[in-house]
Structure formats: C-alpha cells, structure tokens
Design brief:
This protein is of the alpha+beta class. The chain has one domain. Helix content is 40%, strand content 33%. The protein is built from three helices and four strands; from the N terminus they run E-H-E-E-H-H-E. Strand 2 and strand 3 form a beta hairpin. Helix 1 packs antiparallel against helix 3.
Length: 100
C-alpha cells in the first residue's frame, strides 16, 4: 500500500474553519481524481509545532497513481488551499509504503 501524507500545521485561530473546509472541499477534490482508494485524517497530539497539526493520508495500491496525482493534480489543489488560508499554515508532504 502506498500512502501519500499531507501534514498541515494550522494557526490556532483558523483550526475549526480549516477542518471544515478540508473535509468539505479538499479531501473530496483529492478523492474525485479517482487515484486514491481511501483516506484518513489524524490529529497529531504531541506535535512540537505551534498551532494544530493534522495529517491527511491517502491510500492507493499503485505507485503510478500517486505519480499521476503528483504530476497532474497536486499543484492545483495546493494552490486552492493556499488561496483559502494564505500565510496561516505550513504544509509538508511525504510518501510512504506499508511493509506488512
């Protein structure tokens, strides 16, 4: 299983607004690409960062689907996120593979 992870560190003042937007707009847009099978949202409880930290993980069984997402969709989706919450978040991505 391939897991594409987006970690967001969100300004505390927009946490609830951001969480609603991410669930109603961002995640459905990522899933609408048809390149991921499932997702989960995780709240990081022991983050060393200031602000709220969330991880959104998208799962696929095919690395090529991730590459297609990365080359075709990610820039547009991150631009929309940035327009909505400019200068009030930090985002970093990682790509993982399950071992078992």
């Amino acid at each position: 299983m391939i897991i594409y992870n987006e970690t967001f560190v969100i300004d505390d003042t927009i946490e609830q607004e951001w969480l609603q937007w991410i669930q109603k707009e961002h995640i459905p847009a990522v899933l609408a690409t048809g390149l991921f099978d499932n997702h989960q949202i995780l709240a990081v409880l022991d983050s060393p960062n200031e602000g709220a930290t969330y991880c959104i993980q998208y799962m696929t069984d095919d690395i090529n689907k991730y590459h297609q997402f990365s080359s075709t969709h990610v820039h547009r989706l991150h631009t929309l996120h940035n327009q909505q919450f400019e200068n009030r978040f930090v985002l970093f991505n990682s790509l993982m593979k399950t071992i078992n």
